[in-house]
Amino acid sequence: MSRRSGWLEKWSKGRMVSMVEASYRRVGVKKTPRKKLFKKEVVAPNEDLYYILDKKVRLGELSLTGGSVFSPKELVEVELQVSQYQVRMRLLGKILKVTTFVELKRPVFRGEIHFSAVNKEDFDHLVALDDERKKREAEWATRGQSSPLKETHKVTFKRS
Q1: How far is CA 160 from its chain centroid?
Q2: Among 33, 31, 30, 7, which residue's Cα sits nearest to residue 20?
Q3: CA proximity to 82, closest of 43, 33, 119, 108
Q4: Who contacts 113 (Cβ-Cβ below 8 Å, separation ≥6)?
Q5: Would you state the pLDDT for residue 53?
Q6: Spatial contact of 53 and 116, defined as CB atoms under 8 Å apart
Q7: pLDDT tens digits for the chain (160 residues)?
């Protein structure tokens, strides 16, 4: 499936608070009969790709806006750039509700999205970079120097 570009928007009380450029792709899910799930020899080859996000963590009212049609209950993988470390982060989300509007004489589709998982490889890489940054800051603090790195963004997710 091809990647498309769009915008991830955060809304609060009916107003857009922030907007980030993102790319996304549709994720196909193979449905298997329940009987196959209970066989011991059947193991999903990609079962360790994502960390499931805690259901209690609410990321806010988020929507994905793009030029392609979304359908409710569709799964999409959204890729964001984490500018502090110049790395990508892929999140798996489900489209809940879709609205359409016209902008510059072209139809634009906005899907309310709920993220349920984060890519393990991207998350572990980001955590390692953050741990390395904290270690360097601790070394500078023991030498009595101030850190040359400015902490402007924080990314926090809870592992389950």
Answers
A1: 16
A2: 7
A3: 119
A4: 8, 62, 63, 64, 76, 78, 93, 94, 95, 96
A5: 79
A6: yes
A7: 688 999 999 998 889 999 999 999 988 766 666 555 554 444 444 556 888 877 766 677 899 999 888 888 899 999 999 888 889 999 999 999 999 999 989 999 999 999 888 899 999 999 999 899 889 888 888 877 665 555 555 666 655 5
Residue type for position 141: A
Q: What is the chain written as a DSSP string? A: ---EEEEEEEEETTEEEEEEEEEEEE-------HHHHT-TT---TTTTSEEEPPTT----EEEEEESS---TT-EEEEEEEETTTTEEEEEEEEEEEEEEEEETTEEEEEEEEEEEEEEHHHHHHHHHHHHHHHHHHHHHHHHTPPPSS-----------
**42, 119, 127, 79: CA torsion to nearest 10:** 170
CB 149 within 8 A of CB 110: no
Q: Output phi, psi for 134, to 5 deg.
A: -65, -40
Instruction: Output the furthest CA–CA distance in the chain (Å, rounded).
Output: 63
Pair of tokens at residue 81: 């750039």
